[in-house]
């Protein structure tokens, strides 16, 4: 076996490029899977530990206020283990000449959803004139411990001292407003205040939020009836956006890792089979000699199987080692989206399973390839193997055969003998198209979402949040002044056929020109209509013509609506109900926002006491585009890996093809063929692979992009696939360049054909 081991080393050196290609594929499989698993499992582990450490709530209930009797009744509901009271309100604080918004809490001593102290003093509700701020907001606005900051609410201002810098698990993805999708830490923050500040700010209630520890509780089904008109909103860990985003993002990264790894493992196994088979074919005379010297087929099978074992072990080992810097590179983009006190690289047993699977499949592939080639006696092995391939379709048709050039006929004849090589090439080109189209198409789709949402579907310039203290008369006057359109956003429990489904947002709109949405039938939204966005309709199983019952917030009654149309809008995912239809059903229209166009008087409007906040459509569009930039790292990686993939596989196939055809090339050279003519013959196979891979890759890539965008969507946003024409051209050019590059590399080997050696053969 020592002799065979030395021979294996010489063979690996002889076929070093082929083994390097297979090794790279195995290595990339592990880098992609383990690298991305290190991120998504790190996020899951970090957040789970964070949630457990701070005793994160399972359910959240908001109301205009709670009574002691409310709390007692909720505590008695099945599945509820503990209830904590909070007061939450939004105050303003000016920095750099701009208003910032702070969501502030006072909390009791129950210990549900505790804050995590980063620096400063522990939270103490009895500590006078004190505030604890979240770390990102404090960092972005250069706020330090011991500094006094001004906060305003309801026309009153206080100046508490920053006692500590903290983090909260229930604000892991804190955006501050439903109008944004990713955090704007400089403008929106959160904090916790001492009890005395609520009195100074003139807040007359002491509880408007309950945080509940529970398991399969009855709260969701009974909260509307219990609170009546005081009910505002209900969330659990799957619907509270600041929490749900974390698991959604981890799931997205998990899907990417599985997609990549499955493709690379498939290609590495196919490449291993092809490489080992060609290695054995190239050493047929050596095998005959070894058998004659007494080496059994079983021993030679073990020997050749070691090639797969060697490549599998080295490739996966290098891949796992390199997955850690890969994880660190991707992690930076995720840290801008998710706030965790500690980021760690974590792996599950699946990383080990993937490594073992690649090694075992490489070994098994080598064993099967070797056994098939080593069956027979030495005398039989020494015989030349006749070509038993069937005639190609061209050879069967004299008319086509006469019109087909020698090069194409020769290529097709060779391809019919070595079908696995062609199939592997087509799969690699097709897979590259899929990866490139996802890597290019997903950012295109997010850009299309932001562009379409804030230029075609919503054409307002400003979205003004109305102060809660406004009277109906003040709201009407302001609307006339701005020539605006009123909307009301509420949360509602949705039931279909008297079966509880979930809590979803509802947008009630008045007449106006700033909501330019259309149904899938091409109809404009009307004040007398009731509609639902397509993403929400799909998740709830609702179709046009269905009747749904809504239990909206701030109402003690339920209202039934028949859906008049489906709205193909990316965001927000909501029910759209016209104000006339809303009031005709018996519900009360309480506008919360005004949409308006361009105005030269926006500064005075923003300072108007009737307006609590101003957001521009440009800011919303910019926020969504920033999200696209944050996730772009993963998709750049997709495109880079796709480029490497097609170059590696096609070059490997080209080299194997060259080795198989070496005698034919030598014969052509002896017969007087020029290098250019031989190079042209050699390139026909790559052209066939490219054409077939392109024909399959574009439709499969388009479908895969649709599926990926669908899985990337959630309850807040639905991303429709929108691959630009220029992107398709770039994808095609990229694959064409890769194919041309492998053809050039093959041409360099053809130029090295030795005429003297050719004459000997």
Model description:
By secondary structure, the protein is of the alpha+beta class. The chain has four domains: 1-56 and 250-383, no CATH class; 59-236, no CATH class; 404-457 and 618-761, no CATH class; 462-597, no CATH class. Helix content is 55%, strand content 17%. Strands 12, 13, 14, 15, 16, 17, 18, 19, 20 and 21 form a ten-stranded mixed sheet that branches. Helix 1 packs across helix 9 (297-335) and helix 2 runs antiparallel to helix 10 (349-374). It is elongated and about 100 Å long. It starts with a helix and ends with a helix.
Sequence stretches where pLDDT stays below 50 over 5 or more residues:
377-388
Number of domains: 4
Percentage of residues in DSSP E strands: 15-25%
Fraction of residues in H or I helices: 40-55%
Number of helices, where a helix is a run of at least 4 consecutive DSSP H or I residues: 24
Mean pLDDT: 84
Number of strands: 21
Radius of gyration: 33 Å
Structural classification:
alpha+beta
Which geometry do the CA atoms define?
Answer: elongated
The biggest sheet amounts to:
10 strands, mixed
User: How far apart, in Å, are the first and last alpha carbons?
Assistant: 32 Å
């Amino acid at each position: 076996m020592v002799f065979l081991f030395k021979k294996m080393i010489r063979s690996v050196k002889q076929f070093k490029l082929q083994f390097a290609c297979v090794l790279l594929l195995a290595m990339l499989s592990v880098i992609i899977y383990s690298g991305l698993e290190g991120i998504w499992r790190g996020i899951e582990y970090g957040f789970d530990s964070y949630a457990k450490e701070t005793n994160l709530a399972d359910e959240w209930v908001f109301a205009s206020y709670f009574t002691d009797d409310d709390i007692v009744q909720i505590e008695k509901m099945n599945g509820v283990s503990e209830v904590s009271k909070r007061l939450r309100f939004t105050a303003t604080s000016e920095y750099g000449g701009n208003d910032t918004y702070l969501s502030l809490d006072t909390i009791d001593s129950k210990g549900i959803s505790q804050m995590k102290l980063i620096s400063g003093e522990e939270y103490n509700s009895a500590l006078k004139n004190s505030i604890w701020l979240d770390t990102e907001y404090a960092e972005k606005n250069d706020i330090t411990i011991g500094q006094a900051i001004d906060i305003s609410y309801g026309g009153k201002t206080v100046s508490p001292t920053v006692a500590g810098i903290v983090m909260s698990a229930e604000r892991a993805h804190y955006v501050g407003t439903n109008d944004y999708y990713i955090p704007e830490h400089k403008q929106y923050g959160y904090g916790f205040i001492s009890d005395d500040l609520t009195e100074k700010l003139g807040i007359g209630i002491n509880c408007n939020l309950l945080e509940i520890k529970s398991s399969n509780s009855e709260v969701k089904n009974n909260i509307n009836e219990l609170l009546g008109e005081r009910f505002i909103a209900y969330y659990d860990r799957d619907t509270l956006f600041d929490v749900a985003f974390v698991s959604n993002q981890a799931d997205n990264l998990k899907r990417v890792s599985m997609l990549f790894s499955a493709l690379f493992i498939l290609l590495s196994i196919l490449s291993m089979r092809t490489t080992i088979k060609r290695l054995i074919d190239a050493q047929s005379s050596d095998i005959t000699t070894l058998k004659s010297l007494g080496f059994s087929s079983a021993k030679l099978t073990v020997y050749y199987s070691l090639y797969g074992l060697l490549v599998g072990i080295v490739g996966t080992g290098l891949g796992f080692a390199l997955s850690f810097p890969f994880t660190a590179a991707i992690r930076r983009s995720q840290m801008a989206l998710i706030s965790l006190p500690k980021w760690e690289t974590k792996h599950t047993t699946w990383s080990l399973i993937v490594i073992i699977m690649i090694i075992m499949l490489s070994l098994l592939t080598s064993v099967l390839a070797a056994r098939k080639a080593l069956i027979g006696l030495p005398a039989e092995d020494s015989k030349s193997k006749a070509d038993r391939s069937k005639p190609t379709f061209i050879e069967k048709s004299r008319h086509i055969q006469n019109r087909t050039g020698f090069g194409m006929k020769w290529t097709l004849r060779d391809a019919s003998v070595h079908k696995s090589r062609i199939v592997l090439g087509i799969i690699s080109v097709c897979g590259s198209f899929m990866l490139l189209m996802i890597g290019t198409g997903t950012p295109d789709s997010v850009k299309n979402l932001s562009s379409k949402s804030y230029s075609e579907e919503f054409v307002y310039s400003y979205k003004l949040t109305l102060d809660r203290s406004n009277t109906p008369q003040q709201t009407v006057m302001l609307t006339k002044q701005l020539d605006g359109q009123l909307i009301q956003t509420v949360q509602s429990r949705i039931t279909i056929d008297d079966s509880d489904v979930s809590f979803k947002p509802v947008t009630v709109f008045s007449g106006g020109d700033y909501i330019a949405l259309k149904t899938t039938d091409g109809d404009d939204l009307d004040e007398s209509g009731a509609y639902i966005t397509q993403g929400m309709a799909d998740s709830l199983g609702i179709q046009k013509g269905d009747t749904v019952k809504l239990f909206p917030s701030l109402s003690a009654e339920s209202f039934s609506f028949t859906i008049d149309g489906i709205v193909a809008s990316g965001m927000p995912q909501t029910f759209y109900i016209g104000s006339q239809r809303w009031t005709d059903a018996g519900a009360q229209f309480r506008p919360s926002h005004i949409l308006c166009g361009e105005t030269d008087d926006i500064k005075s409007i923003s300072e108007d006491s009737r307006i609590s906040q101003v957001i521009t459509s440009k800011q919303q569009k910019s926020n969504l585009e920033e999200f696209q930039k944050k996730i772009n790292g993963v998709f750049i990686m997709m495109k880079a890996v796709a480029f490497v993939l097609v170059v590696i596989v096609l070059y490997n196939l080209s080299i194997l093809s060259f080795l198989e055809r070496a005698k034919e090339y030598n014969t052509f050279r002896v017969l007087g063929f020029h290098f250019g003519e031989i190079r042209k013959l050699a390139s026909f196979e790559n052209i066939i692979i490219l054409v077939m891979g392109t024909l399959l890759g574009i439709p499969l890539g388009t479908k895969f992009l649709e599926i990926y965008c669908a899985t990337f969507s959630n309850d807040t946003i639905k991303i429709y696939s929108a691959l630009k024409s220029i992107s398709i051209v770039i994808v095609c050019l990229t694959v064409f360049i890769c194919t041309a590059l492998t053809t050039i590399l093959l041409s360099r080997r053809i130029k090295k054909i030795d005429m003297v050696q050719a004459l000997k053969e």
